[in-house]
Write a structure and sequence with these properties.
This protein is an alpha/beta fold. The chain folds into 2 domains: 211 residues, Type I PLP-dependent aspartate aminotransferase-like (Major domain) (Aspartate Aminotransferase, domain 2, 3-Layer(aba) Sandwich), CATH 3.40.640.10; 63 residues, no CATH class. The protein is built from 12 helices and 17 strands. It has a 7-stranded mixed beta sheet, with helices on both faces. Strand 13 and strand 14 form a beta hairpin. Helix 2 runs antiparallel to helix 9, helix 3 packs parallel to helix 9 and helix 11 packs across helix 12. The protein is globular. It starts with 17 loop residues before the first strand and ends with a helix.
Length: 382
């Protein structure tokens, strides 16, 4: 029986208890089947309970679960090498979540340039811990917890605004190449180039938050590789563990030596169980065939979403998509999502009053994508 008697009230949960998942499908406690087009908010990129991840977890669980970061383990060392060599080529600090990766990046940038400000852009979402929240310029999320960490400034996501904001007192600029919780907005190459040039001009650190848009979600392993810009720090989490909690801060060579013993730490981060699972997940996510599939299916889904009734715009890249509903609709996006879930067994979510977001598992077939679109069409009242 569903009960929230002993749960804090900070989640607006739907009255459904999921009991099992496989691939792109979920089943509730009563045996009803659902099609997942949200992937646990971008976590289950390779689907639910991928056999390779399950096997890796089972094998590692019988071998070693935890020893602390005072020692090395083989899965941790190999995963650090794999993440670094596939991206910026520096060093890796492991975390348990995306917000923790953001916090680590902010500390590294502030140590590199002590006392400097951090610049972010509007519509950004970087997490809910105090540093990450201070870089998330959303009044509804920040106001109840003020005062926040000082030294953060938010500007419009334009090239001109970033150039004007970065100066000799700037420690870092933090950006999502594709903004997720803000409604799936792709930042233009001009914006990213302006941030890169401004940071280079004053010696500030450019941080790319790819916690949601990375790990094949946009059709390449890392979203920044589809742009002309390489950041100084890269943040990942969500899909990295194939369903288990793990994140990482990846540095480029220039900042690889900033952290020294005692500067930062995390008791559970980079443990053998989650890093073993991450290897299995990366084996799938780095497959060129999967990356090509994400690009092709994303293009087809975006075109189909644009034809749905009441949809006035589609944004995104790869299988990170949002459809904007006409403002005059009587039904809000949250209501459409509620109907999709409760009446048509489709899992999606709303990131605003008129925005429906889709983050389906990257292994979704064309047939399942068509089914998802049909169910969304029904939820829209067509």
């Amino acid at each position: 029986m569903i009960s929230d008697e002993h749960l804090t009230a900070n989640y607006a949960r739907y009255p459904i208890e999921f009991a099992r998942g496989e691939g792109v499908r979920l089943w509730d406690a009563e045996g009803n089947e659902y099609l997942d087009a949200l992937s646990g908010i971008g976590v289950n990129n390779i689907g639910h309970c991928h056999p390779a991840v399950v096997a890796a977890i089972r094998e590692q669980a019988g071998r070693l679960l935890h020893v602390s970061n005072l020692f090395y383990t083989d899965p941790m060392v190999r995963l650090a090498e794999r993440l670094a060599t596939s991206s910026l080529g520096g060093r890796v600090f492991f975390t348990n979540s995306g917000a923790e990766a953001v916090e680590a990046a902010l500390k590294l940038a502030r140590k590199h340039r002590q006392g400097g400000d951090v610049v972010s852009v509007h519509r950004a979402f970087h997490g809910r811990t105090y540093g990450a929240l201070s870089a998330t310029p959303q009044e509804s999320k920040q106001a109840p917890f003020a005062p926040l960490v000082p030294g953060f400034r938010a500007v419009e996501p334009t090239a001109a605004a970033l150039r004007a904001a970065v100066d000799a007192d700037t420690a870092a600029v933090i950006l999502e190449p594709v903004q997720g919780e803000g409604g799936v907005h792709v930042l233009g190459d001009d914006v990213l180039l302006a941030a890169r040039e401004a940071c280079d001009g004053v010696g500030a650190t450019l941080i790319f938050d790819e916690i949601q848009c990375g790990l094949a979600r946009t059709g390449t392993l890392w979203a920044y590789t589809q742009t002309p810009v390489v950041p100084d720090l890269l943040l990942t989490a969500k899909a990295l563990g194939g369903g288990l909690p793990i994140g990482a801060l990846i540095t480029g060579p220039r900042l690889a030596g900033v952290f020294a013993p005692g500067d930062h730490g995390s008791t559970f981060a980079g443990g053998p169980l989650v890093t073993a699972a991450a290897h299995a997940a990366l084996d799938v996510l780095q497959d060129p065939a999967l990356l090509a599939h994400v690009t092709a299916l994303g293009e087809r889904m975006a075109a189909a979403l644009a034809e749905l009734p009441g949809v006035v715009g589609v944004r995104g890249r790869g299988l990170m998509l949002a459809c904007e509903l006409e403002p005059s609709r009587a039904d809000s996006a949250p209501e459409v999502v509620r109907r999709a879930l409760l009446e048509h067994r489709l899992v999606a979510n709303a990131t605003g009053p008129t925005t429906v977001r889709l983050l389906p598992p990257l292994v979704m077939s064309q047939a399942d994508a068509d089914t998802a679109l049909d169910r969304l069409r029904a939820a829209l009242g067509a």
